[in-house]
Amino acid sequence: MDAILPDIRLELLEDVSPDQGSGFLRLVRRRLRAHYPGGSASEPFVYDEVDRRAIDAVVIAAHYCDADGTRYLYLRSALRPPLVLRDRNRSPVPDLDPPGSIWELPAGLVEIEEQSREGVKQSAARELEEELGFALSPALFEELGPSVFPAPGFIAERHFFFAVEVDPAARREPANDGSPLEHGGIVTVVSFEEATRLCRDGSFVDAKTELGVRRLLERFA
């Protein structure tokens, strides 16, 4: 791409975040001013974003090949309250809104003590064991394309993608994290052929899952 991004600078004028309790998420409200090429600047404006203690996450595509040469991918169900409780009166196509659990690649937050290049792989190994039941060395995890910001308009969360080949016979029942949302979740496998169909027909409503699955399919194409 030949286009050059504009050199627009943001000036932090004031942090006006409201006092909050000890919840999982925190509202950050700032007064900002934008400075443009040529020397002009915007009027001060307020911008809201969401923050949390552990800001980034890992996404893991665990796969294997059977004796017939068919390759499979692991998925797990996830219950996401914002989707279940989404106001269908505000949805332009309410029939597309998921009524319950959705399929996702295993994923989880990078903890504070894991905030390094090596630590991110450790996070991926920890989450894989917690969510799928595979205990593997972090050294076996391969980066699956570059990291991305899934929702840069309101949170600075970055997703790190990994692929890892597993032995289905070595899988144990996952411990999960003990939360009500993970209790009752199930693990399943789909062939790469089925995963391709799920991408094409919109069955993967979770963006990080579709991106990770497509990257994995492309790697083995």
| Overall geometric form | globular
Which runs of at least 5 residues are low in confidence (pLDDT < 50)?
Answer: none
Total domain count: 2
**Helical segment tally?**
4
CATH superfamily of the largest domain: Nucleoside Triphosphate Pyrophosphohydrolase
- Beta-strand portion reads 25-35%
Assign the structural class, choosing from mainly alpha, mainly beta, alpha/beta, alpha+beta, or little secondary structure: alpha+beta
The amount of helix comes to 10-25%
What is the rounded distance between the termini? 25 Å
Largest sheet: 7 strands, mixed
What is the C-level CATH assignment of the largest domain?
Answer: Alpha Beta
What Rg do the Cα atoms give? 20 Å
Q: What is the third-level CATH name, the topology of the largest domain?
A: Nucleoside Triphosphate Pyrophosphohydrolase
The topology string of helices and strands comes to EEEEEHEEHEEEHH
Overall pLDDT score:
95
Report the strand count.
10
Proper CATH architecture of the largest domain: Alpha-Beta Complex
Please tell me about this protein's structure.
The chain is of the alpha+beta class. It has two domains: 9-51, no CATH class; 57-219, Alpha-Beta Complex (Nucleoside Triphosphate Pyrophosphohydrolase), CATH 3.90.79.10. 19% of the residues lie in helices and 28% in strands. The chain contains four helices and ten strands. Strands 4, 5, 6, 7, 8, 9 and 10 form a seven-stranded mixed beta sheet that branches. It has a three-stranded antiparallel beta sheet with strand order 1-2-3, with no helix packed on it. It starts with 8 loop residues before the first strand and ends with a helix.
